[in-house]
Amino acid sequence: MKKNFKTLNSFLINLPTPSNISYWWNMGSILGVCLMIQLVSGIFLSMHYTPNIKLAFNSMIHITRDVNFGWLLRIIHANGASMFFFFMFIHTGRGIYYGSFLKKKVWISGTLIMLILMATAFLGYVLPWGQMSFWGATVITNLLSAIPYLGNSLVTWIWGGFSVENPTLNRFFSFHFILPFILCVIVMFHLIFLHEKGSSNPLGLPNKVDKISFHPYFTIKDVYGFMIMMLFFFFINMKTPFLFNDPENFMPANPMVTPPHIQPEWYFLFAYAILRSIPNKLGGVVALFLSIVIILTLPLTSNLKFKSSSMYPIKKILFMMFCMTFILLTWIGAKPVETPFIFIGQLLTIIYFMFFLINPILCKFNK
Q1: Nearby residues of 320 by Cβ (< 8 Å), 6 or more positions away
Q2: CA–CA distance, 207 with 241 (Å, rounded to integer)
Q3: Residues with active-site annotation
Q4: 77 assigned binding-site residue
Q5: Would you tell me how many other CB atoms lie within 10 Å of the CB of residue 51?
Q6: Domain residue limits, the chain
């Protein structure tokens, strides 16, 4: 017991932390809070949800109208997913800017967390069984049919039939429930890998001297971050609870009526825009997958004296362009597939991937 407390003490309280880390380093702990919110609210929602195509939509109405504070649980869980992705994108952006990707084990486990989180969010979006849930599931699962030889068989196997039906909803619910617990295990490994060598810092220097204990200096900083996050979160939940919801999803799923504009949730729009920009189906699927896993190339292509981009003006400009491209791709993903949005999407896709090609070239010149 004493040994366990000693480990916990070295892990959370007396952990040597660089004295100069800024509020950008708060995102990791905020993401931990987001994960807990999603787990707790999700468990309570699962007690009243029915994974059946004839009852799923009505069970959501039952949760909202009849269950005590069910409306609040549903809103917290739905908007909590958006908060999770919002802070995850900031956390990843901070890692790219300050060179945190050079801690390879931390970066690989973080990328795996992102992929599992995206899979969990997609599965969860299907569960309300509204119009956009059904058609989103149909479109995204159909992408697997682009895989040569195995594609069509794989899609039929995932569906459990010849279309998105009751077996699909059942297995999506099962995986949506299981994956967050797998995510918790990977998050633990992520933290263990991080604490092997400690956090990076804004200067990007191997700072082994100027370190202070995590508590009380950074626990106070984290608590302040939690307070700001919760204030923002509850403002959205109470003032505009359906800000991120698609109006189509308030209608029950109807396989006979296709929505005029099928689109995923806002946090998938950048990848969806890249998918749409490639005329070839298989090429689009490959580009979609690459848009996320390409960040794994960063540790292999960077060998600068300073980790942080703040020491290199051209790298700073390039990073700002990358952020703007990401935001514009998110905007394009919500637009209909017509001119001029097709051309703008293709141009932004090229710029997005160019960042990962130009970055290693700049590293060679800045040595």
Answers
A1: none
A2: 44
A3: 195, 199, 221-222, 265
A4: yes
A5: 20
A6: 11-256, 263-366
Which two structure tokens, joined as six digits, stand for 162?
């010849």
User: Is pLDDT above 90 for 37?
Assistant: yes
Answering whether pTM is above 0.85, one says yes
Q: Is-contact 162 156, C-beta < 8 A?
A: yes
pLDDT digits (tens, 9 = 90+) for 357-367: 988 887 666 65
pLDDT for the residue 8: 64
91 marked ligand binding residue: yes
Common-topology check for domains 11-256 and 263-366: no
The answer to whether the annotation marks 190 as part of a ligand binding site is yes
Q: Provide the CATH topology of domain 263-366.
A: Helix Hairpins (1.10.287)
CA distance 182 to 251: 32
How would you class 208 by CB atoms within 10 Å of its CB: exposed for 0-12, middle for 13-18, buried for 19 or more?
exposed
What is the dotted CATH code of the domain comprising 11-256?
A: 1.20.810.10
